[in-house]
């Protein structure tokens, strides 16, 4: 049983894993003192965990240094925030076909370049500071790569709402708008909660002929890096755990599940599912 004070970490990395089953077994042996979820696939790892500072320190050290996977996760970034509400009820470590599903072919994956990299495939990752400067440009269309209920709860003030009910609907929105954006000479600045969805869709969007710019580490990294992030952000940030929503200081808000899902086409189904998951943690 985890006792307070609690902290939450989010992490992911796209990296080839030849034996994801072995990685799963090793992670299960390492994660006895934390709660949350870790997904492992041939394309990499994606996790969200909660625990004491000491337990998370130990888990981060193991992920970065365990000899079983060598340096596969050596430069993985962890985004940490304090918790009031326990985010998770149990620990789950699973092998999956993909570490994030966004409605693209299974073979699609990231090939993202940094601003000083000459790679021609994928989007350019921008630091929070560079993203802030980019938002002042008039040749940029800012796209929120999340569900409509997430956008409604909070978003960058200049961002478009793709109005999708599921991650898998996002590609259709891009395909419908890409010709007009290209004709207008617009670059596409894209963001999501932690960065992973953008890394998955960026290469595909680049193949459509779009110039893609991505917020490195997503919204959570922006909040973590810039204490005055409220300048560019309206509302809160939804998180897929029992904390429900965070403000720009990464503090939990009073937002309820009803606030999040009210008015959504599938809101009642989402609400009942979330309540079941929340009940498991109590």
Structural overview:
The protein is an alpha/beta fold and 282 residues long. The chain has 2 domains: 90 residues, Alpha-Beta Plaits (2-Layer Sandwich), CATH 3.30.70; 169 residues, Rhodanese-like domain (Oxidized Rhodanese, domain 1, 3-Layer(aba) Sandwich). 32% of the residues lie in helices and 23% in strands. Strands 6-7-12-11-8-10 form a 6-stranded parallel β-sheet. Strand 2 and strand 3 form a beta hairpin. The longest helix is centred in the C-terminal third of the chain and has 15 residues.
Notable traits:
Oxidized Rhodanese, domain 1, 282 residues, five-stranded mixed beta sheet, Alpha-Beta Plaits, six-stranded parallel beta sheet, alpha/beta, 15 strands, 9 helices, 2 domains
List the helices and strands and how they pair.
Blueprint: E1 6-14, H1 20-30, E2 35-41, E3 44-51, H2 53-65, E4 79-83, E5 91-95, E6 113-114, E7 124-126, H3 128-134, E8 140-144, H4 148-153, E9 154-156, E10 159-160, H5 170-183, E11 187-191, H6 196-207, E12 212-215, H7 218-225, E13 233-235, E14 237-238, E15 245-246, H8 257-261, H9 267-281
Parallel strand pairs: 2-5, 6-7, 7-12, 8-10, 8-11, 11-12
Antiparallel strand pairs: 1-3, 1-4, 2-3, 9-13, 14-15
CATH architecture descriptor name of the largest domain: 3-Layer(aba) Sandwich
Count every helix, treating DSSP H or I runs of 4 or more residues as helices. Answer: 9
Strand adjacency order, main sheet: 6-7-12-11-8-10
Taking the sheet with the most strands, its summary is: 6 strands, parallel
N-to-C order of helices and strands: EHEEHEEEEHEHEEHEHEHEEEHH
Instruction: State the domain count.
Output: 2
